[in-house]
Amino acid sequence: MARKKALVIGGLGVIGRNLINHMAELDDWDIVAVSRRAPDAEMAAKADFISCDLLDVAAAEVKLAHLDDVTHLFCCALYGGIDATNTAQNRALVANPVTVMSSVSRQLQRVVLQEGSKAYGRQLGPFKTPAKESDSRHMPPNFYYEQEDFLIEFQRGKDWSWAVLRPEAVCGFAVGNPMNLIMCFGTYAAISKELGMPLKYPGDLRGFDAINQVTDSGLLARMTLWSATAPNAANEIFNITNGDGFRYANVWSDWAQAFGMEVGMAQRIISAEVMPDKGLVWDRIVEKHGLVKLPYEQTAGWPYFDFNMDTSWDVLMSDAKRIDRGFTEMIDTERMFLDLFAEFRRRKVLP
Question: What is the pLDDT along the chain (351 residues), one digit of tens a residue?
Fold first, then answer.
């Protein structure tokens, strides 16, 4: 089997980290990653990490110039959190490394871009469900459109191809990345418990009953490699979720039980306003339970948590296209949440 070499942009985020973990288990991948933060020992053992400001194309040209044997480029980085209007910086996070690697490596075969359901306008309000890859765009700005349009236009006439993936609320193990629903919820639950509170749903009450989807990071990693290598994935866009849906109303009691808590009456709060001052409570939890000393500001992205909890409309994307093309794997979402809570506790990140 011919060896392949990956360059992962955003190697320590939820998507990039779990993609590297998956590739490291295989025998035919060499891995290089770019990240803003220094890797922990676990990740440093699995990939060669490069620190580079990819928003600076001159810096990217210098730092990536030696990578003349990269076969696959994975764009997994994000600038500015949930704000889909940060178009210039997010376009550069794709355009700069793609431009450099297309010039540097004549072995480049495919570029895989990670997008998300904001491509359908799920951040704006109700949208057509189940959303399909062929659906029309919403009124811009949207940085996914900028990234996608650049990639499609720049690739024309070149020997390599592209693939675009649209996961929803990626869930997996990662530390120091606040845009992780598992850590957001776990931190919220731990602080609630420490303050003697039951577990109260904190978002818009309509969101408690709405249909939601998420994407397991391991499933996404496997789909990402499939989209990078399958001939019928070339120059195509794919939704990728666990393949099912859930309602918070149906899982909330199981989540409370997982943290040894009672369920309380739902009570809307704006987490971005009331949770940032709970650092001392978190420090107390860390000491009490012997947890990894993760700075409080790196535990949870409260605007991201609000974004998910306050979505009062259905979020549902169709997985039919990727299943029809050959990637048929599905994940039980309710089981995934409980397994991930257990993993974060086992790794002493959550109590």
Answer: 689 999 999 999 889 999 999 999 999 999 999 998 899 899 999 999 999 999 999 999 999 999 999 999 999 998 877 666 789 999 999 999 999 999 999 999 999 999 999 999 999 999 999 999 999 999 999 999 999 999 999 999 999 999 999 999 999 998 877 888 999 999 999 999 999 999 999 999 999 999 999 999 999 999 999 999 999 999 999 999 999 999 999 999 999 999 999 999 999 999 999 999 999 999 999 999 999 999 999 999 999 999 999 999 999 999 999 999 999 999 999 999 999 999 999 999 999
Are the C-beta atoms of 222 and 19 separated by less than 8 Å?
Answer: no
CA distances from 84 to 10, 139, 202 (A): 18, 12, 23
Show the beta-strand stretches assigned E in 21-98: 29-35, 48-51, 72-75
Residue type, 290: G
**Superfamily of segment(s) 4-170+216-240:** NAD(P)-binding Rossmann-like Domain (3.40.50.720)
Q: Where are the domains of the chain?
A: 4-170+216-240, 178-213+245-315+332-346
